[in-house]
Amino acid sequence: MAFLVRRVLIPDLVLDARGAKSGLGVTIEDGRISEVGPATAGERLPGKALAPGFVNDHSHTFQRGLRGTVERIEPSRPHDDFWTWRERMYELADGLSPDSIREASRRCFEEMLSAGYTSVTEFHYVHHYPDGTPYEDPNSLSKAVALAAEDAGIRLLLLPVAYARGGLPRFRDPTVQSFLKRVDDLQEWAEGRSLIEVGVAAHSVRAVPRAWLEDIGAYARYENLPAHIHAGEQEREIEECLSEHGVRPVELLAQTRFLGPSATIVHATHADEHELDLISAHGASVCACPTTEGNLGDGFLPAVEIRDRGIRLSVGSDSHVRVDPFEELREIETNARRVTGRRNVLVAEDEISPTPYLLRAGWGRAGLKAGDHADLVEVDLSHPTLSDVKTGDLPSALVFGAGSGAVAGARVAGERVYG
Ligand SMILES: [Zn+2]
């Protein structure tokens, strides 16, 4: 008989999207929350608030290696933009090995845990040797990322990414069948690994042709997997899509049936009204990566239009120029204020503050509840950014006035992995 581990954590406050309450305990059994309710006996967490862990829904761990190195103009390329940044990113990607990607990923995952992210969606597109030859195990690099997540203790949704054209040879698979075979094998390998789940992705409408989108969409539906894709990050991508296909990127995703309830559109920065209508009608999600989108000069996503349509929103730290969920959320609302010239913009129906909407986007849930994974963060209530904040104002103070420095600890499946 399996030994059931049961413990009760009693912080000063339990935080949810709308507020904070004292006198509550969070009971954890077998890695999941079994109860949130009044409690007096258990493990006290003095000076701490307990909150759901943040979900980092879009990451390329290795790009953290660019931090601090790309914030200057190369004299040979005086016009610096997304496309010149991409050249630097390719140079970094070309030098990766299974060992170095595992090490870079572990460091990145550890930083995420320290910042309050307890799960991450890794959009992984570096697959083969630099010349495009597959490794003896064609999933070596994907597995290296997964092992790094296990090393760090973070929950991982691993997305092997299809790449048919452009980019580097090591990103590309010769056929969609050979790509999907690798996804099959990876799913099998990940079975029984409690922190690892496998989904599927296509890099972008630039990197894969129409037929691949159809096949990957069909595979995701058949296997019931989440399917992600970058779309609408840059105007040039939209122009190229229009000239190749006669439609905009999200329209192509709808035509090819890639778009569906399990699909996530990463960025959607330049999505127009019709594309947003399609995302909404198909029940798909949008992942915003504001610190990266700002750093790359991409633009700002149509946040008000996304909120108005009830499109599910998540956030990602993408290039890891900064790893801080509070800052991602703050950027969404602050940019919406800059654009509209108003305050408290992204307020959901029946609410008066954007904070609950933003926290739900960051957590992928509204608060701690029975049945969920016990993926938790501890917030340090004595942190200088939070001292003197009244209990009722704590969620907004976190989103608008604090940062990852206020995170004192993180637990994944109930196990302490940071702090
Ligand atoms: Zn990305």
List keywords for this structure.
nine-stranded parallel sheet; binds zinc ion; 13 helices; 419 residues; 17 strands; alpha/beta; 23% strand; eight-stranded mixed sheet
Task: Describe, in plain words, how this protein is organized in 3D.
This protein has about 425 residues and is an alpha/beta fold. It is built from 13 helices and 17 strands. The chain has helices at about 80-95, 100-115, 140-150, 175-190, 210-225, 235-245, 250-255, 275-280, 290-295, 305-310, 325-340, 355-365, 395-400, and strands at about 5-15, 20, 25-30, 30-40, 45-50, 55-60, 115-125, 155-160, 195-200, 200, 225-230, 265, 285-290, 310-315, 375-380, 405-410, 415-419. Strands 6, 7, 8, 9, 10, 11, 12, 13 and 14 form a nine-stranded parallel β-sheet that branches. Strands 1, 2, 3, 4, 5, 15, 16 and 17 form an eight-stranded mixed β-sheet that branches. Helix 4 links the parallel strand 8 and strand 9. Helix 2 (about 100-115) packs parallel to helix 3 (about 140-150). The longest helix has 18 residues, at about 100-115. It is globular and about 60 Å long. The model has no long low-confidence stretch (mean pLDDT about 95).
Per DSSP E runs of 2 or more residues, the count of β-strands stands at 17
Radius of gyration: 21 Å
Mean pLDDT: 97
Main sheet record: 9 strands, parallel
Structural class given helices, strands, pairing? Answer: alpha/beta
What's the SSE pattern? EEEEEEHHEHEHEEHEHHEHEHHEHHEHEE
**Small-molecule binders:** zinc ion
Instruction: Kindly estimate the percentage of residues that lie in beta strands according to DSSP.
Output: 15-25%
Between the first and last Cα atoms, what is the distance in angstroms? Answer: 32 Å
What share of residues is helical?
A: 25-40%
Shape: globular
Instruction: Pick out the low-confidence regions.
Output: none
> How many helical elements?
13
